[in-house]
Amino acid sequence: MLQSYNLKLTIAGTDEAGRGCLAGPVTAAAIILPNSFKNEILNDSKQVNSANRKLLKKIIEKEAVCFAVAHVFMEEIDKINILNASILAMHKALEQISINPDCIIVDGNRFKPFRKIPHECIIKGDGKFKEIAAASILAKTYRDEYMQRIHDEFPMYNWKKNKGYPTAEHRRAIREYGPCPYHRKSFRLLPEQLIMDF
Predict the structure, then answer these.
(1) Distance of CA 155 to the CA centre of its chain
(2) Phi/psi of residue 131, each to 5°?
(3) What topology is assigned to 11-151 in CATH?
(4) pLDDT tens readout for residues 45-96
(5) Which residue ranges make up the annotated binding site?
(6) What is the domain partition of the chain in residue ranges?
(7) How far is CA 22 from the centre of its chain?
(8) Residue 45 confidence (pLDDT)
């Protein structure tokens, strides 16, 4: 059972999806849940199947006190690196929520201060606290929807299935067709890659 971080404080949870992808944005969500929020299937998005993630997305959006989702796209990732882009996406999501929280809890071990609001990084926090788990569900589902849309532009990479992650199928398509504008130029797209012309 996931915990609430602190019932006496207004807590915003934040998490990202897509850090390890070869294509597409990194996407983050920030959310404040009511203290009374409970859901038996809520968990780290990687532990929840696609059907349940879609179900949870609707429930979370309906019951959240407030939430926001933000993308940081490939050009920015290539410019500032994926760690900074992930933190930027979380900051962008936090900027959009309608309530200033007392504290921010973040999945993982790296973050940069946001508006002088205290924060805590929690390793595997998306499997421990409902605020981070809910953020992970929103980040994952919104990013998956984006990858589904751009799949139609470049169906040869099969992003509707692999969502831009470095699967064998995705890498075979890059080898055959080359990269496209949605690929992250700063990433090693192929294992044998030394220099790739874009």
Answers:
(1) 22
(2) -65, -40
(3) Nucleotidyltransferase; domain 5 (3.30.420)
(4) 889 999 999 999 999 999 999 999 999 999 999 999 999 999 999 999 999 9
(5) 15-16, 107
(6) 11-151
(7) 14
(8) 87
Structure tokens at 22: 């070869």
* Mean pLDDT rounded to a whole number for the chain: 93
**Known binding-site residue numbers for a divalent metal cation:** 15-16, 107
pLDDT digits (tens, 9 = 90+) for 85-118: 999 999 999 999 999 999 999 999 999 999 999 9
**HEC secondary structure over the chain:** CCECCCCCCCEEEEEEECCCCCECCEEEEEEECCCCCCCCCCCCHHHCCHHHHHHHHHHHHHHCCEEEEEEECHHHHHHHCHHHHHHHHHHHHHHHCCCCCCEEEEECCCCCCECCECEEEECCHHHCEHHHHHHHHHHHHHHHHHHHHHHCCCHHHCHHHHCCCCCHHHHHHHHHHCCCCCECCCCCCCCCCCCCCC
